[in-house]
Amino acid sequence: MHQEWALSPANRPRQGSGNAAGLSVLQVVPSVNRATGGPAASVTGLSQALASAGLDVTLASLDYREHAAPMEASGARTITVAPTVLGKALRGWSPAFANELQAMARQGLDVVHNHGVWMYPGVYARRLADQHKIPFVISPRGMLDDWSLAHNPVRKQVAFALYERRNLQAARLLHATSDMEAEAIRRAGLRQPIAVIPNAIAPVLHPNSVSRQLLEQLYPALQGKRWLLYMGRLHPKKGLPMLLEAWSRLAANSAGWHLVIAGPDLTSYGAELRALLSSHPNLAANVSLVGMLEGEQKACALAHAELLVLPTLSENFGIVVLEALAAGMPVITTTAAPWEELITQGCGWWVNPTATALEDGLRQALATPDSELRSMGERGRQLVLNRYSWDAAARSMVQVYRWLAEGNTTPACVVLS
Predict the structure, then answer these.
(1) Of the candidates 322, 343, 331, which has an alpha carbon nearest to the alpha carbon of residue 387?
(2) Residues 260, 290: contact at Cβ < 8 Å?
């Protein structure tokens, strides 16, 4: 797939009012169900922030209700269609969803913004943008990163030949959430302008308002322990076997600590992790797989865990890193995630994605005095407040939409080549 991409002819800029309130934007994403991963939170957060900024926002997604309830975007109009059994097998194929999008386009749109690749909702978004001559934006959401392209390559090559080549060629602009993701997009051969706008998070106002007993009562192994938290999907790209290998080597250094692995298991990958746990007798007593945490349970984990670990093999952003930092928790993640700021801002560890490097990082973190961990956590919280607000993300995205719809000055966040 690493080739030059021919751009489709530029659409004629639409004549808008020149202000945010004059822009009508359709956000298309395969799913915003809570258990499906980071895009569910980031796309709903962006949609809500854009609506607060005065845009007319419609958020359209398929509803995979077996993966928990959809997240909500206050102020945005929503379109949800439940996929059929056949549609689920065919990557979100849904004529009913396509019809809903076409109905929205007939009401007038300034920008169509699709999130994710390799799924049929992107086909429907591209088709209506082409048909109605509307600027088309794609946020790959990490799905063009090297690891993702190498994972299930045959399936992706088929999708690329059938529809994804045309989707990507039709995009007037691509949105990356980090410089690292922008570089991966260029390596994939795409030459369109790229807007680099990070994800964001709402501030945590009362991070310690939930008692730790909430989780201790549900999981007695956590009682009296210091919590090292992993929170995210149970998925091969998250590097959990590497984490378990590193953790098994730290038995002598991890006394008093307990590894909490929290997250949804969408593909039965948890069975492989449980088999790994059973093969390491010294892990069984200080690792708990607790499933997906929501609401007060999630708040409890973020409030009372002392370190977050994300042993990822590929990450375009890592919204859980923001969640941990916003709660005042230092973070350990790998250089496969775009979080060098953990080092430059003194709020965590950024290590190579190997079991040995992860073990070294964990050993350093566990040996860090409590007072320094608290200071690191406070520096992380300030970083989030200063750099990763939804207001800032929405301002940048509004500038991008205006540029596409009205042809004004190129925003500073846009890299043209």
Answers:
(1) 322
(2) yes
